[in-house]
Amino acid sequence: MKKIQGIFLILVCVIVMTSIMSDVFWGSYNLENVLRRTALFGIISIGVAFVIITGGIDLSIGSVICLVGCGLPWLLVEQEVSVPVALLAVFGFSLAVGLIHGILVAKVKLQPFVVTLCGLLLYRGITRGFTGDQSQGFGTDFKGIRELATGEIPLFGFNFPMPCVFLVVVAVLAGVFLNKTIYGRYLLALGNNEEAAKFSGIDVDKMVILAYVICALCSGLGGLLFVLDVNSAQPVDFGNFYELYAIAAAVLGGCSLRGGSGTILGVVIGAALMQVLRNMIVLVDWIPTHIEYAIIGAVILAGVVADEMIKRAVAKKRASQG
């Protein structure tokens, strides 16, 4: 809870600083844009949080987003596949990716870093192959399905972006699953101590596979909403570095890279912080826009250092009490 309070305070401070340095921040268009992007990145951040909680990592998120984001319009426009079949295909692929990653990590005992790094290269290469490296989009068609990402819901005199609805649903389901079900407790136990989890009767392999499946499905949903929002996707760069935003949000939200801890609310707040920081870079003239990734790297490093210091402090306190 203290981590959540800390990251929320930082978010408030960044919002205040940005609003002071730019009078555009509180404009309706800008706020809707920040909310929309927070929701989109929040969804994929929740997915990777489950993997991080088990002590793993997923570097393939951006490439999965690219494949789904380019694959959906390619199926609908180029191949003239029906909407239900196209949706089934992209989510079926996402499910398969999660299963493959989980099996390679849990059963074959490969390192998550290696497995998902190969996935990062493989899925983008596949996308560039079947699309001929050409941009994919919906043009002026499929306005109905695009409403899933571009639609708005009037709420208290403010237009609430549709992706926020998806974020709320995903966050609530993820929070209930992680905190209120036995499987959520299994995931946390696995991240804390894999050997102890095995001895307590937990099917560790199934839990690892489950975590990667959840992450891949969230990535697929994110890719779907991203492309429906922007209406165009280029195989060469669509989704590039999105995994960094997701991992940074999860780490800032309290997910330890060692595994065993994390909260869904914290991850959502972390995603919001990342997007407000990005928005600040865009709005404030004297901040160079090309240092965006430097800031992301610094944020991830700060989160890892803070996590390490907290763990050492807790271990020292326990040792002194013992």
Characterization of this structure:
With 322 residues, the protein is mostly helical. The protein has a single domain, classed as Orthogonal Bundle (ABC transporter involved in vitamin B12 uptake, BtuC). It contains 13 helices and 4 strands. The strands form 2 sheets. The chain has a two-stranded antiparallel sheet. It has a two-stranded antiparallel sheet with strand order 2-3. A hairpin with a 2-residue loop joins strand 2 (152-155) and strand 3. The two termini are 24 Å apart. The relative contact order is 0.19. The model has no long low-confidence stretch (mean pLDDT 91).
Quick structural overview:
The protein is mainly α.
- Structural class computed from helices and strand pairing: mainly alpha
- Alpha-carbon Rg, integer: 20 Å
Average predicted local confidence, pLDDT? 91
CATH topology: ABC transporter involved in vitamin B12 uptake, BtuC
Helix share, percent: over 70%
User: Biggest β-sheet: count, sense, barrel?
Assistant: 2 strands, antiparallel
Gap between N and C termini: 24 Å
In N-to-C order, the SSE pattern is HHHHHEHEEHHHHEHHH
Identify the CATH architecture.
Orthogonal Bundle
CATH class: Mainly Alpha
Domain count: the total is 1
Dominant shape: globular
Looking across the biggest beta sheet, what order are the strands in?
A: 1-4
Strand content: under 5%
Which regions are unreliable across 5 or more consecutive residues at pLDDT < 50? none
Number of strands: 4
Per DSSP, the total helix count is: 13
Topology, pairings included?
Layout: H1 2-21, H2 28-53, H3 61-78, H4 83-106, H5 112-130, E1 136-137, H6 143-150, E2 152-155, E3 158-161, H7 162-180, H8 182-192, H9 194-199, H10 204-230, E4 232-233, H11 242-252, H12 264-283, H13 292-321
Antiparallel strand pairs: 1-4, 2-3
Helix pairs in contact: 1-12, 2-7, 2-10, 2-11, 2-12, 3-4, 3-5, 3-10, 4-10, 6-10, 7-8, 8-10, 11-12, 11-13
